[in-house]
Design brief:
Layout (H helix, E strand, L loop, with lengths): L3 E7 L4 H6 L3 H4 L5 E4 L5 H9 L13 H10 L1 H5 L15 H7 L3 E6 L16 E4 L6 H6 L9 E7 L26 E3 L11 H27 L6 E6 L5 E2 L4 E3 L6 H4 E8 L4
Parallel strand pairs: 1-5, 1-7, 3-4, 3-5
Antiparallel strand pairs: 2-10, 6-9, 7-10, 8-9
Bound molecules: zinc ion.
């Protein structure tokens, strides 16, 4: 049978934060890589995931068309489907549609409201749900019930790593609270006045994101246990990074900065128990 696919996207999880975090369970999947997102904001970044494109390596001296061809061919290893060509994804360029044609069931559980089921991201999914809370990975795992005789693609967006970096459904945090902008974008130019964060507050927020990543890692065994006895390929990555004061920015979105585009990436077979 074809492999289950578990694609875990830790929203806003910055590469160096994940690299600094204690993640023994992620480490069992594969080696953590620094990669580059195609986007700096949640919605378009998730759209690209659903095109079947994972964060790239920014390779030099190669034609982009060859990079795309190789990227699409990687779904052979990930799924167990033989001989995948880029043309198998055309003209829709949809990963869930491609998988559906090969007998997959497609399930999405998303945490960030911007990815809600009224958007066009839910195309070709058999199940597409927005979680009640933005930071409830354990609750999300409870909703995952692998089907014995059908390979399934699980598209999981986790919000623990998103501002305000709270875990287990908590509403409040001790980190500085932003009014109005939801922490997605904050930038004061020179001469502007207003609330801004101190270096120690930025350090505190970065550490809070690291703790959120560690909490996500602690939940992984419970998720993996559900797939015991099946074959599954796991991908863990982020949609974009986060700025903690670099160049006068906080957050992500319409920002052109390497730390917004650099993301963690690891993939591999589900570890045996
Ligand atoms: Zn995001």
């Amino acid at each position: 049978m074809l492999k289950n696919i578990i694609l875990i996207i830790m929203d806003s999880a910055r590469y160096d934060v994940v690299a600094a975090a204690k993640t023994p369970n992620m480490d069992r999947i594969g080696t953590l890589e620094s990669r580059w997102s195609y986007n700096s904001w949640t919605f378009p970044a998730h759209h690209v995931f659903l095109m079947g494109l994972m964060p790239h390596k920014s390779p030099a001296n190669v034609h982009a068309s060859n990079v795309y061809r190789q990227e699409y061919a990687q779904w052979q290893t990930r799924t167990g489907i033989e001989k995948i060509d880029f043309s198998d994804f055309t003209p829709q360029l949809s990963l869930p549609l491609f998988l559906q044609k090969h007998g997959y069931r497609n399930e999405a559980l998303v945490s960030m409201p911007v990815l809600n089921p009224a958007t066009n991201l839910n195309q070709y999914f058999h199940r597409y749900e927005l979680m009640e809370k933005h930071n409830d990975f354990p609750g999300m795992i409870d909703l995952i019930l692998p089907i014995p005789d059908q390979p399934t693609f699980y598209f999981l967006n986790l919000g623990e790593s998103h501002y305000p970096y709270t875990i287990r459904g908590a509403e409040q945090s001790n980190i500085p609270h932003l009014h109005g902008v939801h922490g997605t974008l904050k930038h004061f130019r020179e001469g502007e006045t207003g609330e801004w964060f101190s270096d120690s507050q930025f350090a505190e927020m970065k550490l809070a994101q690291q703790r959120a990543v560690e909490e996500i890692d602690l939940c992984l065994p419970k998720l993996f246990h559900k797939f015991a006895g099946t074959s599954a390929h796991v991908i863990i990555t982020a949609d974009h990074g986060e700025l903690f004061g670099e160049a006068g920015y906080f957050g992500h979105g319409p920002i052109q900065h390497p730390k917004v585009f650099e993301v963690p990436f690891t993939e591999g077979q589900l570890p045996g128990e």
